[in-house]
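User: Second chain of the day. Same drill as before.
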Amino acid sequence: MFQIKKTAMGFPADKEATTNEKDDLAPPSRFHIHHHINNQTETGMNNRTLSWGIPPIILSIYFLLSRAGDIGFQIPLVLMIAAVLTVILSLVLYFEKPLPRWSRATVLLTALVIRLFFVGSSPTLSDDMYRYVVDGRQILSGHNPYALAPSDIQTADPAVQRVLGHVNHPDLVTIYPPAAQIVFALAAVPGNVVLFKAVLVLFDLGVCALIMLILDRMKTNRDRAVLYAWHPLSVLETASSGHIDTAALFFLFLAVFFIHRTSVMRNATSGSMLALSGLVKLFPFALVPAFFLVHERNRRVIPGFSFTFTTFCLCLAFMPNLMNGIETLGLYVREWEFSGFLFRLSGLAGLPQPLIRPGLALAFVLFVMHDAVKNKRSFCSEPDHAVTRHAYITAFAYLMLTPTLHPWYALYLVAFLPFHPGVSGLCLSWAVFLTYYVLIGFKTVGVWQESGIMAFMVFATPVSAWVVRKITLSISPLSIHADH
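Assistant: Same format as last time:
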């Protein structure tokens, strides 16, 4: 009988034939030898095809997409290409080898080239980056970005004047945390949108490199890094739209990289990096309990102090005007909504509106805390595995429960796919592109009309994948080893 051993979400890692003792003692028949040679030849051809074929195919697809013009007008094409690329990357898992088929240089160089295809274009899927530039230039001119809303800014800075009219919600003070403002200032030095995105691409390449380093430390095939490095979401949301989330991921993976059971300096660095990550984008703060569970109680003081001290210093630097940004954050939490299926469903079910958001938030917090407590022993015994797994599950839960689901929010999920490549996660990483359906009407006739059907499809796609997988496992005679 053949037994197929599979990886975390059902992709085969290796194949091994098992027989009874009598068969082990018997010499192989001519048919078995011929069958074995054919299998080896077929597997070798598949591996060679993947090793040499996938990078050029990936490069060609991205190049063609970059030549398609304003991709904001090409949403159906983006959806189709994203689906094709996700399937191709899934093949890397299905035909995974014990040893890497690509060098680190190949992964990073391919990631760089496909990002360069888009870095020179204007951000058309999102206009968030224009506020980044305004905030950064405000700091460079000596002003606190939390002091005034863009509509109240009086400036002669040509870099600000070029983008000020493109800032969304110009009547609101910036919502982005203090560490994000420092990144904005760094990237805004040239005063150019393209060079601003180029800085974020460097952060993104750093994320790719850190993923490979951590995979090597976990003794996991670093080929899995391409699930992020070559994924359409990371490419388009960073190189095309210029979202700041890639900087948050860079500091988050530095926090994971510096985790150590005994080294005081490494643990202090890890705590500071986690604080920086959360002060670029707030989501990493949801992972704070997991990082502290890695350490024994008497060793949590140092990372806890470095985390608290870094957070305090960065926030203090922008006080008292930072409180204006917190007011904007409160408005976002209370009123923003986009493609949140459970939020919409709760409203249709007649639940009181004031209770829906707190209810979803409470469900998220309870789920995350339950997962952390349930697996607290693994945080001590296998910190890399436990933290990355918890981050993957936390990101997945957030995307399913949040009232506001923009595609770039899924970057945190995609970043941890190389460590725990779930079928549901892969499907969700594509499904979030469906939320861009709203741009079809907005770009053509100027009408922003959200679709409840698309919100349902984003939610239903990973759920359906999970159900199908469970059914397949229940009826399949194969033994499949899965992490979750």
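Confidence is low (pLDDT under 50) at residues 1-43, 479-484.

User: Great, on to the next one.
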